[in-house]
Design a protein that fits this description.
By secondary structure, this protein is an alpha+beta fold. The chain has three domains: 138 residues, Histidine kinase-like ATPase, C-terminal domain (Heat Shock Protein 90), CATH 3.30.565.10; 155 residues, no CATH class; 110 residues, PAS domain (Beta-Lactamase), CATH 3.30.450. The protein starts with 14 loop residues before the first strand and ends in a 6-residue tail after the last strand. The radius of gyration is 24 Å and the shape is elongated. The strands form four sheets. The protein has a six-stranded mixed beta sheet with strand order 1-2-3-5-4-6, with helices on one face. A five-stranded antiparallel beta sheet has the order 12-11-15-14-13, covered by helices on one side.
């Protein structure tokens, strides 16, 4: 552990405070109060704002993700205050790289930006300690340096029996966007469960399963990038922030035997969260069909391979079911809006809703792609996306629903459009957002062909 860590020996503190908190959202407030009182008593209130924000974030993360009792230790020294938060979950926190509009995923970066030093100390099967220190020195807010501020001790191995699982043809881009959706919807689910004691879900087990897949995938993507094996998900010039990922990735997981059952729990937890999102009980939108399908595939592969079955590869997003069926977790009703602006347009234009479903097309658009107007309406937008770009399209749209980031709105971009006969027409897109009266979004894509079909 770093010499600045609060548990480091040989340092004499002016004041110490300890308590045990329960894994509930209210514990963050209790932690802030204890820290505030300690700083006031020690005459170090200048450190209050930064340290309160940091302890609030770390305790909240422990409550939402570890789901175990939380031990809080505060030690005030002459030059700094150091805070340690221990839980019994061995899964280490993973810093995210989400966009500014994201509703989750910025906590580690926030803490790093506020504090003098910080770190994570794993305790093997006995959990972990997340710590930070705040002093008079101004924190460096440079976002490129935030992750380097975290001092992660990795000398405590987690020894347990495990089974090797191979997720063949792992759709890395799609899973990363699914992870972002899961982060948002599970966080809301935990807050919902805190107010509704009639529904019991083992969110801790679900988080354990998610972390096994996501942490392994992030490490593999980092290795691929360093080895030059990563590629962009979309053509050159596209403004999408989707990360570069390796082609044809076979992701090898080491799954503790006692964690195999967590993958069935993960499906149950996310099913419950999706149902609540459909009912309007959560702010997060329900997941797109491909987002649901990829987590079901991953969970079922872990369960099946642990029972002795051979690996079955991800079947891909270019499936007829994704073109024709809106997942039943989405409302079946179209948004309430005036579709004549599209139906009567003299140029190719298509309108889609927040389920990524085509809700109106102009006759020139239908003619361009070889469909009848009434054949296209009701199908999903992936019908018009070449198979090699469907994963990226779904991933980008899912990120938009989760975060509100809109990198392609109002930005001309050239992309191929798939015709009914299987040819491609390169078109210049201009996408606009047209809110519906019900509060749901409508997206208009105006197309200008720049290459004829089949060229």
């Amino acid at each position: 552990m770093s010499e600045n860590a609060p548990l480091a020996p040989g340092r004499s503190a002016l004041l110490e405070r300890r308590c045990t908190l329960q894994p509930e959202p209210q514990s963050a407030g209790a932690a802030r109060r204890l820290l505030r009182e300690a700083l006031h008593e020690a005459g170090r209130e200048a450190w209050r704002d930064a340290s309160e924000l940091a302890v609030s974030e770390i305790v909240t993360n422990a409550a939402l993700h570890a789901h175990t009792p939380i031990d809080l230790e505060i030690r005030v020294f002459d030059e700094e205050v150091c805070v340690a938060v221990r839980d019994l979950d061995p899964v280490l926190p993973i810093p995210r790289d989400y966009e500014d509009e994201a509703t989750t995923g910025r906590g580690m970066g926030l803490v790093a930006a506020l504090v003098r030093s910080c770190g994570v100390h794993p305790l093997g099967s006995e959990g972990k300690v997340v710590w930070f220190c705040v002093g008079d020195e101004a924190a460096d807010p440079d976002p490129t340096a935030l992750l380097e501020r975290w001092d992660v001790d990795d000398d405590v191995p987690l020894e347990c029996e495990s089974v090797e699982v191979v997720l063949r043809s792992m759709p890395a881009t799609l899973w990363l966007s699914a992870r972002q959706h899961h982060d948002a919807i599970v966080r809301e689910l935990v807050l919902y469960l805190a107010e509704h004691d009639d529904l019991f879900l083992d969110v801790a087990a679900a988080d354990r399963a998610r972390a096994i897949v996501s942490s392994t995938l992030v490490r593999e993507i980092d290795r691929a990038a360093q080895a030059g094996r990563a590629r962009p998900a979309l053509p050159d010039g596209h403004p999408s922030p989707l990360p570069w990922v390796p082609d044809d990735l076979d992701l090898v997981l080491s799954v503790p035997t006692d964690a195999v059952g967590c993958f069935a729990v993960l499906q149950d937890v996310l099913d419950a969260a999706e149902s609540l999102a459909v009912a309007g009980a959560l702010f997060t939108r329900p997941g797109l069909p491909e987002i649901v399908a990829v987590r079901d595939w991953a969970c079922e592969q872990v369960i099946a391979q642990a029972a002795g079955s051979p690996p079955a590869p991800w079947p891909g997003t270019a499936q007829a079911r994704f073109e024709t069926t809106v997942h039943d977790r989405h409302t079946a009703r179209f948004p309430d809006w005036d579709s004549t602006v599209v139906a009567d347009a003299p140029t190719p234009v298509v309108a889609a809703d927040d389920a990524n479903r085509i809700i109106a097309v102009s006759r020139p658009l239908a003619s361009l792609v070889g469909w009848e107007v009434d054949q296209l309406v009701g199908r999903r937008v992936v019908t018009l996306v070449p198979p090699r770009y469907r994963e990226a399209h779904v991933a980008g749209f899912s990120r938009h629903l989760s975060t509100g980031e809109a990198h392609v709105l109002g930005v001309p971009v050239d992309l191929p459009v798939l015709t009914k006969g299987g040819d491609e027409v390169v078109c210049r897109f201009r996408i606009e957002l047209a809110p519906a009266t019900t509060g749901r979004a409508v997206y208009l894509a105006w197309l200008d062909p720049v290459e004829p079909a089949g060229t």
